[in-house]
Amino acid sequence: MNPTDVIVVGAGPTGLMLACELALAGVRCKILERRAEQPNITRAFAVHARTLELLDARGLADDLLPRGVPVRRLQPAPGAALDLSTLETRYPMVLIVPQSGTEHLLEDRARELGVEIVRGAEVVGLRQDARQVVLELAGGRTEAAGYVVGCDGAHSRVRGLLGIDFAGKQYETHILLADVRLAEPPEDALFAANGPEGVVLMIPFGDGWFRAIAWDRLREQVPLDVPLPMAEMRDAFLRIAGTDFGMREQRWSSRFLSERRQAGRYRAGRVFLAGDSAHVHSPLGGQGMNTGIQDAMNLGWKLAAAVRGQAPDGLLDTYERERHRVGTQVLALTDAFNRLVLGRSAIRRALRALTIRLLLRFGRSRRLLAGRLTGLGIGYPPTTRHAHPWTGRRVPDLPCTDGRLYELLRDGRHLLVDATGREAVAAAVGQAVKVARYAGPAVPGLPAAVLVRPDGYAAWAGEDRTDLPELAKVAVGRCGGPSPRTHPASS
Q: Nearest-CA neighbor of 490 among 270, 312, 314, 304?
């Protein structure tokens, strides 16, 4: 018997979110983090609409909002604007908040749920059998658990020990990063400018400091270990944006190499990969942290069901099937942005920008691009023939008699939303899942009943017919939903 059901390696946003999901389901979970202390740098800033919805499903979004600045209009290409305020979501925005703010919020929740976080624990070895995974740590100590998830970043030790390939490429242009104070801050929360010599961004921390980011073609081959003085960053902004906003103090700076890579597999036996361990992208588009948090939400309830002995055959395999495909799509999106603004051919950059402007003129293509960028358009192909069109889709925040859908998901359980009003539907599923009655106006295409997964996607949907209660009962039996946290975890 292991005292720990799941070990998560890595205390970044992905690892913390996953640990919260597991602990919420009553799983005994421990995080091992190589860093002895939290770093004082942060690279991710954008929290997209779908991630905010998922945080809302755990009661965290409203705590994060005051820590950031909402941006409701983006410019994916020069002369092209994307208005996020029209999105059909409670969070029609990109929230600009330092990654450290998101991590602190998630770590507080993880500790509140009883997750043990062990810092200064470096994994150096891994072995597994049919029952458990044993991790060897620097110093000779070992840790064992039923499952392990590597959330330990782009240079993942877990991935390396598994021998899983990380195929892709490095981008040629180095990224310049610096934390600075400004005498004349930009009016926009998210300032961006591009030109023939590169791209610059200026993002507020909210405490008087700003993160200056530059892709400078004139300095793209400077070795990563060469110090980055403030004069170099000022010069990049002056040439590309026409202003340096009065940079007058710098507390930290670095050169960063961006990559485009994806793990060949997200699972090897009892070990899984999530977040940057599974995929890394160009930071343009702000997809990295969002994709990792959504990995965690997808894997968390499935792994909890497996720990509790409630997982139907093949449930754990659906994590890789669903999320590897999403990772590939995100890589394609961010690579397209990278080529759009950093491509060496000015003619090609202009043609790509023109294409984006044309796409944004039409409602369907505009919605498609917004859905890809914000995560609202992510869905999972159904695994059965003749599935309802809603199966695998993101379920919107439907009004129910007991509150909003995403409020009702906060205990991490499956939820059956019944729009029929027939007692037989609720009676058929009994206590297996919660049942909520739809309380909104008639919506074209809304199923008579929809079984919502803990991560806010439709596991099953059905129309109002005589065998609907029986169909709902069968669907619930196949879902593998974790029980409430108040139930003890299995040994």
A: 304
